[in-house]
Fold:
Amino acid sequence: MGPKDLSGVVQAGRGLGAGLMGDQTVMEGLRELAGFSLVPGTLNVRLPEPLDRDGWRYVAADEVAPDWEARTGQSGYFLAPVTIAGRFRGLAFQAVEPVGLGYPPDQIELFAEVHLRSALGLSDGDRLEIASA
Structure:
C-alpha cells in the first residue's frame, strides 16, 4: 500500500485515546506535531493490507510526554498528515509496541480536528476515505 491512499474500514478501539489525551501537556505536544488543534480520542482504521510507512515521520514516545512510554507501553509512532473524507485535517499514526502485543500491521489510528464518528456518522465496519495530505 502506497502513501497516497490509506482508505480502510472503521474498527472498534480500546477507548484509551481520549483518556490519555485529557492531559493538557499531551494535547499541546500533539497539537505541535499535527500543526493544528485535535479533539481528544483516536479512530482505528483497518487497511486492506499492511501499511507501507515509507516517508512517514518517526516520533519517540518521550516527544509526546516524558512518561508517555510508561503510560502507554508504546515506544514511538510513525506519523503522516492526512485528509479524512476529503475535508478534515488529520494525523495518521501507527504505534510501535513490544513484539507480541499485537498491534496489527494493517491498522492505523487517526487524530483529527473534529470528532470523526460524530461529524461523519461513522460506525464500526464503515469504509473511510483517507488520503495523504
The chain has a mean pLDDT of 86.
